[in-house]
Input
Amino acid sequence: MKKIIKNLTIVTVLALMLTACATPAEETQETQKPVEEAKYTAGVYTGEGKGFEGSMTAEVTLSETKIEDIKVTSNETPDIGGKAMPQIIDKILETQRLDVDMISGATKSSEGLLTAVTKALQEADVDVEALGGTFIEEEAVLPASERLKEITEAGAEEGVRKFEFEADGSTCTTSFVIGTNGTKVTTVEFLGDPCVGNTTGIIHLIDGMEMAEVIEDFEGIKCPGANDVSSCPDQLAKGLKEILNLYAVESGDNSKDADEMLNANNGDNDDNDDGDEDSKKFNGCGGNCLACGGACFPRSL
Output
């Protein structure tokens, strides 16, 4: 009997020892977190969108598992778009998704930011649709000659021709309707979402001017800030140059393009050029065209 009791005691002790040894391993397996699989290629990526005050750029920082940070450069007004964008960024970072709500009163700024972030993620080969976004196709930029088309109008005034020129770049105006009579500008209509005060002033300013004069004054004008690539006047000048090129072809004079003709016509004016690059920038805008009441005219005029 004593032998049986002794054997049972040994078995019990061994069982307790085995249980004690197994416990840490089991606890380790229960508390160990699974390793998250890499979803992204870590790095910093950029994309562009169009807000209320022109183009904006988003810089998106990715780790292998999440969107870590978003920084934006824009000309959006501090009190509207400037306040809305941090809220959108916080929502994206919190939810790790792109289908976030727009900010009331700043829809255009919100859309521009989401577009910029989406393009940045697409640059990183992220499946934006899986994040609730919409894939954005890159638009092919046509040569200027292919962005000009003549508009045929019934009963148009004799000698007056109209053309539509599609703008290229992050300008407020998407296209122009340009009326000409010979080599003079008769009408200009700015289409898209132009700065009304400025464009109205420009229309009155160039009415009846020679196309060559308008091109000389407007070509190369840049908007300040993030939109420092082109401007509505600069794009208008490009459209007028294409019209002059077309006129040269129609007249049978293919020996010179618009640039050569303008250089020849403006040769006598070289002595008046003070070389001031600032004369080819808008005066008084501060990047906010609507706020200046039409005061943003080039200093060279």
User: Anything to note?
Assistant: The two ends are 119 Å apart (CA to CA). The chain is about 35% helix and 20% strand. The chain has two domains: 43-131, 144-292. Confidence is low (pLDDT under 50) at residues 270-301.
